[in-house]
Amino acid sequence: MTDDRDRWMVLLYEDENLWANATPEQQEVYLVRHRDYEQNAAEHDVVILSSDALRPTATATTLRPGEDRLTTDGPFAETTEQLGGFYLVGAASQDAVVDHARRLPPSYTIEVRPVAILDF
């Protein structure tokens, strides 16, 4: 395994019901924060390589550990926060990524993790 210290996953966690129950005006506030995050990336020496939102956990299929890989509908575990989206970014340091991630909506729990490249 080779570490690629130039790529980072910015994982966004939140109670998905907040978005589902938000008014159009509240949703627009979120979208403005995301646009600001994307438009100001260069100021933080961050390059956005990819990003997407995820559909609600009710649409997921989970494969359980084991040889038979039992599948179930929905998420693996009941949690108050769900993974709702991500950004894959390029940056020189984790500090730069973290500093820039502060621009995202304050209701998110944000996990910043370096990407490791697997050599097969």
TrEMBL record:
<dbReference type="InterPro" id="IPR005545">
    <property type="entry name" value="YCII"/>
</dbReference>
<comment type="similarity">
    <text>Belongs to the YciI family.</text>
</comment>
<protein>
    <recommendedName>
        <fullName>YCII-related domain-containing protein</fullName>
    </recommendedName>
</protein>
<dbReference type="InterPro" id="IPR011008">
    <property type="entry name" value="Dimeric_a/b-barrel"/>
</dbReference>
<feature type="domain" description="YCII-related">
    <location>
        <begin position="8"/>
        <end position="108"/>
    </location>
</feature>
<dbReference type="Pfam" id="PF03795">
    <property type="entry name" value="YCII"/>
</dbReference>
